[in-house]
Amino acid sequence: MAVVMALASLPGTPAAWAEPDPGSPPATQAGSAAPAVVKGVAPARGPLAGGTVVTLTGTGFTGATAVLFAGKPGSKLTVSSDTRLTVTAPPGYATVNVRVVTAAGTSAPSAEAKYRYVEPPRVIRVYPDAARLGKKVEVEISGTGFVDVTKVMFGNSRATDIRVTSESRITVTSPAFYKSDAVDVQVVTAHGTSKPGTYTRFHAVPAPWLHWLTPSSGPATGGNTVTVHGSALVRPQTVIFGDKAGSNLKSLDDNTLTVTVPPGKPGTTVRVLVFTPYGHNTSPLSYTYKPAAVPAPTITGVTPATGPTTGGTTLTITGTNLAGASKVSVGGAPATAVKVVSPTTVTAVTPAHAAGAVDVTLTTPGGSVTKAKAFSYTTVCTPTVIEVSGDITSAVTWKSDCGTVYHVNGTVTITAPDGSLRIPAGAIVKFADAAALSVSWGSLIVEGTAAKPVVFTSIHDDTAGGDTNGNGNATKPTAGDWGGIDAANWFASVRANALDLRYGSGIDSWNAGSVAVTNSTLTNVRGGISAGRDVAFGSSQPIIITGNTLTSSGTISATSRNVSDDASPVQVRDNTVIDSTSTGPAYSINDPRLQPSNLTGNTARGGRVNAIRIYGTLIENWTLPTTGLPYIVGTPSRTVGAPWDSDGLSIAKGVTLTVPAGAVLKFERTPGQPPLYSGISGDGTLIVNGTAAKPVVFTSIHDDTAGGDTNGNGNATQPAAGDWDGLVIRDTGALNASFLELRYTGPDADAAPTIAGISPASGPAAGGTTVTITGTNLSGARCVILGTDAICREDAAFLRGSDTELVVVSRSHPAGVVDVAITTLRGTVTKKNGFTYLAD
């Protein structure tokens, strides 16, 4: 049979080849000679080209006609005896069987009858590939075919101490070279000589020689880059400046390198040495560290920042390189008593100057430096405290004169329609404990500016207006020291810009004529900004809350009910709530004319519920954001019996709400009572663009598995079916939803409506009777059905509704006794024979 032989990877050599089968020897007859047996092959290897005279020993060689090397006959066969013959090997590859052919047949293959064709040596790598002139080094040579090595040559010079550790590795001692040169390393074996190659060169390298440095000098701090020009800068290891090594060494070529200079002593010159594996320069170059320059001064601070126009304020100026300061000028006039306290601190006394912000300039041997507007001259004021309390019934303007502080020692109330209180920029108003500012009629106008805010604060706050209560530090201000600002009448309005409100109880208005709080700050306030309006009480004026910052205070809330179609939507924009002390959302907005474009730019951090709660009717197209603060739909509290309202989000006719993939929207309802509706409903279009990878989730506020712990109460509450009502899209609306997950929704089984009474119980068949129906769980009633007449919410005959009462006007109907039915989202209740239409 054929024998497959694996060959070494040689150029032009096949990966595998088949040894020809010379055929089985003929059967040996009784008394006939047996085939030859090969017991030894010497030498057992030779070059691929053949030509090696091989001696075979064994038995049965008499009459041998051929010797086969992998089926290929050798030449010059000489049979010396029955046990010995010689033959010249033919060309071949790898290790092959050697078989003798006689008249008795062909010898069988055996372990002793093998011959190996050895490839010529091949050098792949020389390491190291260089040595210093005149020096011998141990070199490791990697490659193949290192069999029967006879010598290793470095150019024309012979290596010594040859140690063949394997057929692929040799170590030798290189010859010494005395001039720069690059020679080929070749391995010579009994089977050939390796060829020169790219990586078989060995280099004789001299020690480095330096020509010049660029630059040859630099700052004592070091850190600058120097280029070293020379020769034999091969494989540089380090560059020494004096006794310090440079850093960031980079070889550009064998004659150029760059290095970062280490720090040195100012005004000194040091030698520069370059070290390579082949030595260092013996003629060093010089590098000079420049003398230290006097550094330019800087000013980082000036305290105090203000002082009287009369001068005499001792300034402390901090900065760097202030040693040797000889002059300080304030507003262009020289200061006195200039004293250098340390290289970072100088003191000086201000001269007299007109009021205003001025520059502070300091001069040292290193130069001059100016800090613009670093000190402000202020007019010396005589402190004046004005005590105020009681009612305001006419137009009043308070002052912001220098040193004037208003002390509200009892509640101040604006009580007349023509009453108003105007407070100009820069005014300071302090409140006694529990004192407040109330607007029941008229208007409060706060006209602060960014540069001069109006301050409302506690009498215990000495940081504004000084120690007004004259007790030093005996008392400290705290949140809720005073009662805050409140307005609760449709003829009352509050307009405050740049109000700095501290330690009070916030700004609270309900049904005010208008509320505008802008660019103001509330700090350490027990409460926040709360504004509401209800057309049922005569209020549909704007609510504007923009650009405010609340810190360690409450939240921002805007509520609008039953407003007319032309009422301005609520505006709550660009506010910041930080570290809210409230347990509710940072923002809560309820508006029957909800425009999310008026609710942008709001941020919150550090509070329990950093979110925006919305409920009401959406009147503009909106795509729910997937970045910024999360949104919650619903309200956690509602007044029983309040006018028609909704705890959910309604989409107006012709309006589209789009919810993008991956969005999470949470819902909450009024605890302890059935809500009008706590979900998404309406006559518009709801588009949910979820995907399999990013579904949209509508779920309960108590569900922490989607969107995290939005209500900020940890595991205190758990979600349950019926937490919110779900989706109701009415006749003119549309729902297009993909990959939407609805969780914990459904009606409350215990919230079905009941009818307790109907008054009056009869009226003319012509209609016109105002009918009041009392009961429970009537919130959200869509229609009241008198007999066959359905009086629905959108009808003019549907006057009003609450959780316990519905009021409608009967319309024309055939005479007779009829049933009265009410339908809500929780079910339908019917009062049999509840109303009688009387014949005319």
Condensed summary:
The protein has 840 residues and is mainly beta.
Model description:
With 840 residues, the chain is mainly β. It contains no helices and 84 strands. The strands form 14 sheets. The protein has a 23-stranded parallel sheet that branches. The protein has a 7-stranded parallel sheet with strand order 43-45-48-51-54-57-60, with no helix packed on it. Strands 4, 6, 7, 10, 11 and 12 form a 6-stranded mixed sheet that branches. The radius of gyration is 51 Å and the shape is flat. It starts with a strand and ends with a strand. Mean pLDDT is 86; it is low at 1-18, 23-31, 637-645 and 672-676.
Secondary structure: elements and pairs:
Blueprint: E1 3-6, E2 16-19, E3 37-42, E4 45-47, E5 53-59, E6 66-69, E7 72-73, E8 75-81, E9 84-88, E10 95-102, E11 105-106, E12 114-118, E13 122-127, E14 130-132, E15 138-144, E16 149-154, E17 157-158, E18 160-166, E19 169-173, E20 181-189, E21 192-193, E22 201-205, E23 209-214, E24 217-218, E25 225-231, E26 238-241, E27 244-245, E28 247-253, E29 256-260, E30 269-276, E31 279-280, E32 285-289, E33 298-303, E34 306-308, E35 314-320, E36 327-330, E37 333-334, E38 336-342, E39 345-349, E40 356-364, E41 367-378, E42 384-392, E43 395-397, E44 404-414, E45 420-424, E46 428-431, E47 437-439, E48 442-447, E49 454-458, E50 485-487, E51 492-497, E52 499-502, E53 507-509, E54 514-518, E55 521-523, E56 529-534, E57 543-546, E58 549-551, E59 556-561, E60 571-573, E61 576-578, E62 585-594, E63 603-605, E64 609-618, E65 622-623, E66 631-633, E67 649-651, E68 656-659, E69 664-667, E70 679-682, E71 685-689, E72 696-700, E73 726-729, E74 734-738, E75 740-742, E76 754-759, E77 762-764, E78 770-776, E79 783-786, E80 789-792, ...
